[in-house]
Write a structure and sequence with these properties.
9-stranded mixed sheet; Methylamine Dehydrogenase, Chain H; Rossmann fold
Length: 1089
């Protein structure tokens, strides 16, 4: 019996899985094993869902590294100890601090008694402090160690407390009435004791002397010593729940599993590409969790380690994948949003100097998609560099030229320029400074101003000349620069440091003469070292400056007088119309100020961490903000409402999500970005049925006026049913039960090897006879269930089953169904290319299939509106028969379906896509009767695909929208939402790979001058060599990517043609053909563009 059960209710919280940004120092499972907590040197604690690896909550409050975290018995609270000298008690459900105690010394280790009342705290000065968690009362500390206590642990009955120290000793204390008395000192280690662990009768201690000692806790005698010839320092030890196996972590990146009775190693876990220290077993003993110095946690299946010869199976890695957005800016027409994303990786344990990987990511707001990233910029902060601290590196990180044609970026204090027309880097002269703190384009884009330490440089882009407008050095480091709108004045913001004796923080310079016009001083009494940001207002009459003392000042350019100061923080951005100023604030909100009155008029609340960057759209209607919480947020200036959050995952994956839970995302984002309700993670995929809205980013930024879909209002989450699955036996019967968990029982689907085999609604149990099973190998059964309202699914519960019988090892065969309709039953609807395109695609697949698989392994059915030879008339009945014939395909076979002609999508019918067959007399498919006779719907395609045993299926749709909607769609540069959703549903129900071309009308469809549609021409061109792997093999992933890019390039500015849609069930790929040079010459084509 496979069982899954959840319980949650309440609002959804969007979580950006940031993970840790420094080594993991402590890990602990919850009592029920469902949750895991990790403490890190990044000062945070993270709560994880063990089953999914999802981050549930982050706990912030410590100001130095967290050295120890534990669950309080009961599992509803956690306790943490930090180098900041505090111990904190946290509420698991909301992440808030319940209580905090100042211990005055760095806290190195903590342990809680079994009744959850007494806390033992190991400190850096060698004292063990005792604290009543409920009352906060401190008891008499335990003194005996003469240096840092690195480990503390209560025995199972809490009558004994063990402590380990850098003084090489382990001490045992008798605990009575919250007081302790030392009764044994266990000496024998020759170096620090890093870790201790109890089982029922034995205490294990791991030391830097490369040994583990087992002690009798009643007599204090050493039972045995565990060591290996390759032993290095032992960092951590942990018993399994039965107390018979001891896991130990060695400094040489090895985990040993020891049999306690024999003292021998059962097995080793080696080859982990990082260092690690903390280790713990899950309560059921089946999972081993380790904290690593690459900022991750790794979970291992113990059953694959503790057997001779087992290499150890990693269950999953718990890590962050959302990107930190350090800077954002719009181009001059507001179509492109540039963002600088950063990912920091710590290579060495407890190393404070991170490697930093940066990527400049461009978003096309018109299409709502991310563009290919500009060249990756990688750099390492140097601890020897006086400017390596964070406060200087974010200033002026990226900037568009005023004409929007060039983008400048800075990494590791070096500037790069890119030509956005081709994405290529612009070469800079040899004498260009390689050490730049800040930069700015002049209003006419002819000059790039650079701050190079305490000096200024001007680069004349046309002549390539580098000039120094200011003679000598400035009073302090120049951290920010800004041109006046006239381009005649340059403002410089200076570092406020102890070396800046005059406290000059802003200086104005005449560009032509290099003469200082005036300077402004920081008159604040609160000294705070850091940079100064400066920014001219659009009218050039006011200069805004932001200081590290948490104030923003306005200066009158003509008089040099301070007009006003604001209680605000950098970053700064004026609205292009000059009426507003956006700033950061102390409470992570973004403040909006009226420039006429100087008053705050709005506060945008939604970020959960410091604000890194703010920028307005060119029309001053939308404000975009980026924060340390890994989110870009869009705000409506007029209403003050949040429009959406944009999350970036690594280089090219993303999701955009609105406050009412609508979203658009990539395939990876669908699986990895999630909400949390209570302690239950919910992937975006689980909300896909109702809330998935392709093109959402273009809608919220105003480029797409298509109305949004109707959705359910999520005032409170109604949970999906609990699922119970009884795995099939020899009778091949699958029994499924659904149990209402408060949200009712809605639709349910059953999939076998990614294919839908059952679809029911409202049933609480059903029994299925499994057909389509693959004998002799693993079959994956997946059940998806929705709540009654149909907006939330369980995301799918899977179980695996190896069916009886012999595995079919026969080579694969190719089944292809190729259909094209040029001439329909009415002369009013006609297309030029589909018949010919279908014949050419069929010929190409035949050539490549035979070369790859053999002459007798290729089965092609060609259907056209003017059949010749062996081809058939493309009527619905013949198309249905072709799918019926394809049922002969075996699981390992390949099925390719190509449909060319008219394709219509009906939103009112639930995103229903219809491919018109020869019988059609109109493109109006709103009548169910007409649809049933003269089209094949996506629902029918899903049903037909699912009746074919093949597990490798492809559909290529080269269709024209046409019909009465054509005139409305011609000028649009996006595929309609309903069409994308229809294809996503087809993929979800069948596991099919989808390549879909989109043209809104016949004019666009037939605009290609080579006698073929753009999509088909790109496919044939790719087969001729451009998309082949090793210049020979036709890989489906390579083909799709090539065609998508090629169609975009060929179509150019033709209004009704969009980049083809690629929808794939996973990242796997496979070959569908092989072509020699001679084969490629036989590929039919109508010509070249």
């Amino acid at each position: 019996m496979f069982l899954i059960s959840f319980s949650c209710a309440g609002q959804l919280e969007l979580v950006t899985q940031a993970g840790h940004s420094a080594p993991v120092s402590s890990v602990a499972f919850s009592p029920d094993g469902r949750l895991l907590i990790s403490g890190s040197l990044d000062n945070t604690i993270i709560l994880w869902d063990v089953k999914t690896g999802k981050e549930l909550r982050i706990f912030k409050g410590h100001i130095l590294g967290v050295n120890a975290v534990i669950f309080r018995p009961g599992g509803k609270m956690l306790v943490s100890g930090s180098s900041d000298g505090t111990v904190k008690l946290w509420n698991i459900s909301d992440g808030k601090v319940i209580n905090s105690w100042n211990i005055s010394e760095s806290v190195m280790a903590i342990s809680c008694s079994s009744d959850g009342k007494l806390l033992a705290i190991g400190t850096e000065n060698g004292t063990v402090k005792l604290l009543n968690i409920e009352t906060g009362e401190e008891f008499v500390p335990l003194k005996g160690h003469n240096s840092s206590v690195l480990a503390v642990s209560f025995s199972f009955d809490s009558k004994i407390l063990a402590t380990g120290s850098t003084d090489k000793d382990v001490r045992l204390w008798i605990m009575s009435n919250s007081n302790g008395r030392e009764f044994l000192t266990l000496s024998g280690h020759k170096n620090w004791v890093n870790s201790i662990a109890f089982n029922r009768n034995i205490l294990a201690s791991g030391s830097e002397d490369n040994t583990i000692k087992l002690w009798n806790i009643e007599t204090g005698k050493e039972i045995k010593e565990l060591t290996t010839k390759q032993s290095e320092g032992v960092l951590s030890v942990a018993f399994d729940p039965e107390g018979t196996i001891l896991a130990s972590v060695e400094r040489g990146r090895t985990i040993n599993l020891w049999d306690i009775n024999s003292g021998k190693i059962i097995n080793k876990l080696e080859g982990i590409p990082c260092g690690f220290e903390p280790i713990t077993f899950s309560p059921d003993g089946m999972t081993l969790a380790i904290g690593c110095d690459d900022n991750t946690l790794r979970l291992w299946d113990v059953s694959t380690i503790d057997s001779p010869g087992g290499n150890g199976k990693k269950i999953r890695t718990l890590e962050g994948y959302a990107n930190l957005i350090s800077s954002i800016t719009f181009n001059s027409n507001g179509i492109i949003l540039a963002s600088e994303i950063r990912r920091r990786i710590f290579e060495n344990m407890r190393n404070d100097i991170p490697d930093e990987k940066k990527v400049i990511q461009l978003w096309n707001l018109q299409t709502g998609k991310v563009l290919p990233p500009l060249e990756k910029m990688e750099g390492v902060f140097s601890s020897l560099d006086p400017l390596s601290s964070k406060e200087f590196d974010w200033i002026g990180s990226i900037a568009f030229s005023h004409n929007g044609k060039i983008l400048a970026g800075r990494n590791n204090f070096k500037v790069k320029l890119w030509d956005l027309s081709n994405g290529k880097e612009i070469l800079l002269p040899n004498n260009f400074p390689d050490y730049v703190l800040s930069f700015a384009f002049s209003p006419d884009d002819k000059i790039l101003a650079l701050s190079t330490g305490r000096t200024l440089s001007l680069w004349d882009r046309a002549g390539g000349i580098l000039m120094s407008p200011v003679t000598g050095e400035l009073p302090s480091l120049v951290t920010s620069i800004s041109f006046s709108p006239s381009g005649k004045i340059l403002a410089t913001g200076l570092e406020n440091s102890i070396f800046n004796k005059e406290k000059t923080v802003v200086m104005l310079w005449d560009i032509t003469s290099g003469r200082e016009i005036r300077s402004f001083k920081n008159i604040s009494q609160n000294f705070s070292r850091g940079g100064t940001s400066v920014l001219f207002s659009p009218d050039g009459r006011t200069l805004a400056s932001a200081f590290q003392d948490r104030t923003v000042s306005f200066w009158d350019i003509d008089t040099g007088k301070e007009q006003q100061y604001l209680d605000a923080l950098s970053p700064l951005a004026f609205s292009p119309d000059g009426k507003l100023l956006a700033t950061g604030s102390k409470n992570n909100s973004v403040l909006l100020w009226d420039m006429v009155s100087g008053k705050q008029i709005r506060s945008f609340k939604g970020h959960s961490d410091l604000i890194n960057s703010v920028t307005f759209t060119p029309d001053s209607t939308i404000l975009a903000t980026a924060g340390n919480d890994m989110k870009i947020k869009f705000w409506d200036i007029k209403s003050g409402k949040e429009l959406a959050s944009l999350i970036s995952i690594e280089d090219e994956d993303w999701a955009v999500i609105t406050p009412d839970y609508r979203f658009d995302t990539t395939l990876r984002g669908m699986k990895e970005i999630h909400f949390v309700s209570g302690d239950i993670p919910l992937d975006l995929f689980q909300l896909k049925e109702c809330y998935y809205e392709p093109g959402l980013l273009s809608k919220i930024t105003g480029f797409n006026n298509e109305p949004s879909r109707k959705i359910f209002s999520l005032n409170e989450i109604q949970l999906f049913p609990e699922i119970q699955i009884k795995s099939p036996g020899p009778d091949k019967k699958l029994i499924i039960k659904l149990i209402d968990q408060g949200g009712g029982i809605g639709r349910s689907q059953v999939f076998l090897n990614k294919k839908e085999i059952a679809n029911a609604s409202g049933k609480n149990s059903f029994e299925l006879d499994l057909t389509g099973i693959v004998p002799g190998q693993q079959n994956v059964i997946r059940v998806v269930a929705w709540n009654k309202e149909g907006y939330l699914s369980n995301g799918g519960v899977e179980c695996s089953w190896i069916a009886e019988g012999k595995k079919d090892n026969e080579p694969p065969e190719l089944y292809a169904i190729i259909a094209g309709v040029s001439n329909y039953s009415s002369p009013d609807i006609k297309l030029s290319f589909p018949d010919r395109d279908g014949k050419n695609i069929a010929k190409a697949l035949e050539i490549g299939g035979k070369r790859l698989l053999g002459s007798h392994k290729v089965h092609i059915t060609l259907l056209t509106s003017t059949p010749e030879g062996n081809s058939l008339l493309c009527i619905k009945e013949n198309l249905k028969k072709a799918f019926y014939e394809a049922r002969k395909a075996k699981p390992q076979d390949i099925v390719v379906v190509y449909l060319a002609g008219y394709g219509i999508t009906l939103q009112k019918e639930g995103d229903l896509y219809c491919y018109l067959t020869k019988e059609a007399i109109s493109t109006d498919m709103s009548s169910p009767e007409i649809r049933s006779k003269s089209s094949v719907t996506c629902d029918e395609l899903a049903e037909w695909f699912n009746q074919i045993p093949s597990l490798r299926q492809i559909i290529i749709l080269d269709t024209c929208a046409g019909g009465p909607l054509a005139r409305q769609l011609t000028a649009k540069r996006y595929i309609p939402v309903e069409q994308i959703r229809a294809m996503e549903t087809l993929k979800d129900r069948t596991g099919v790979y989808v390549l879909m071309g989109y043209t809104s009308d016949i004019v666009s469809y037939e605009a290609c001058h080579c006698g073929e549609s753009f999509l088909t021409h790109a496919i044939l061109t790719g087969i001729k060599g451009e998309a082949l792997r090793d210049n020979e093999f036709l890989d489906i992933k390579n083909l799709f990517q090539y065609v998508s890019t090629e169609v975009s390039l060929m179509a150019g500015n033709i209004g009704g043609i969009e980049k083809p849609l690629i929808i794939v069930p996973d990242e796997d790929t496979f070959d569908i053909g092989r072509f020699t040079r001679e084969d490629r010459e036989l590929i039919p084509s109508q010509g070249n563009l």
